Amino acid sequence: MTTFKKTLLALTAVLPVLAISLPSQAAMTPYMEKALIDVCKAAKSNSILKLKSTTESYRLQTKTVALKLMCNGEDVISFAESNGADKTAARLQKSIGNVSITDVAALSKVKVTF
Question: Could you tell me what percent of the chain has a pLDDT over 70?
């Protein structure tokens, strides 16, 4: 068997394994998990200053947080509202602006439970 055939056979055997294992490589780092938990806690605190300070310290955009972060199974705006944090919920809602989403199938959210 030639070297080319051996290489081709090895690639054929390894390629399906790589395809299956790649999605599992998207695990969240401990730093990112701490950052997102801190943002959830800041949203719950009802302090706009604390929310702004936390998002800036982790270099996160408020609009991205409002659209993609989930805290304890709820999106961050609903989470803030359900915990009586109306000021932070309003600030997060304001950061989104007037958005019309027509295709929600492609939307991915990050879930954090603490």
Answer: 69
Q: Mapping DSSP to helix (H, G, I), strand (E, B) and coil, where does residue 45 land?
A: coil
* Residue whose C-alpha is closest to residue 65's, from 57, 53, 77: 77
Share of the chain above pLDDT 90, in %: 53
**Tokens 């989470």, located at residue:** 79
Mean pLDDT of 34-44: 94
Unique residue bearing structure tokens 């990112």: 32
Tokens of 114: 């603490």
Nearest CA to 112 out of 63, 64, 83, 79 is that of 79
Instruction: Give the global pTM.
Output: 0.64
What CA dihedral angle connects 82, 85, 86 and 91, to 10 degrees? -120
